[in-house]
Amino acid sequence: MIRKLGLVVAIAVFVTACFTMLSRDAFAKEYRIGYVDLAKVSDEYAKTKDFEKTFEAQVKGKDAERQKFVDEVRKLKDEQALLSDKAKAEKQAIIDGKIANLQEFDRRVRDELIKQRNQMLGEIQKDIDTVISAYSKEAGYDIVLIKQTVLFAGPELDLTAEVVKRLNVAKK
Q: Are the C-beta atoms of 36 and 149 separated by less than 8 Å?
């Protein structure tokens, strides 16, 4: 009986040792890991810089257009101050209409600019994702993380410069 128990224990130890060695070998594969600073990639991407210049020019144009509305309302208010009470009320109705037009203009422009900005940022993000994916496959990376989610990683794992370089080459 003791011999059988000893044999069972020996077999159990042997089986456990085999499983331990097999599972250790399964996890022994080394993974190639890198990370990318998406904010830096976006900032240094030439397409982003071009978009920002274009977008800022559009905003300035819309601001100039808005300023015309504001100047017109101010002019009407200045004229209103010199009028009689009945004429002031009539002028106020005109001013209220101009203010409503200005508010509608502001809403419409804001919506257009937000839509345009989101569309362009989506295109930029798609470009970045495509380059990161292609480079990762080409260079044999198993995992590429976003730097903002990594607590610590050595600079040798940083793929940001290569991604920026490839993005800007692809853009030309």
A: no
Q: What is d(CA 162, CA 132) in angstroms, rounded to the nearest whole number?
A: 9
Give strand pairing partners of 160.
none
- Which uninterrupted H or E stretch holds 35? strand 33-36
- Tell me the whole-structure pTM to 2 decimals: 0.69
Q: What is the mean pLDDT of the chain?
A: 84
Q: How far apart are CA 160 and CA 162, in angstroms?
A: 6
The residue with greater pLDDT, 6 or 116, is: 116
Closest CA to 39 of 143, 165, 172, 164: 164
Rounded CA-CA distance 121/61 in Å is 21
pLDDT for residue 12 is more than 80? no
Which range (68-77, 78-87, 118-127, 130-139) has the least confidence? 78-87
Tokens of 152: 């610590």
Residues 45 and 127 sit within 8 Å (Cβ to Cβ):
yes
Residue pair 34/146 in contact (Cβ under 8 Å)? The answer is no
- Name which of 101, 23, 29 is nearest 65 in CA terms: 101
What is the predicted pLDDT for the residue at 49? 92
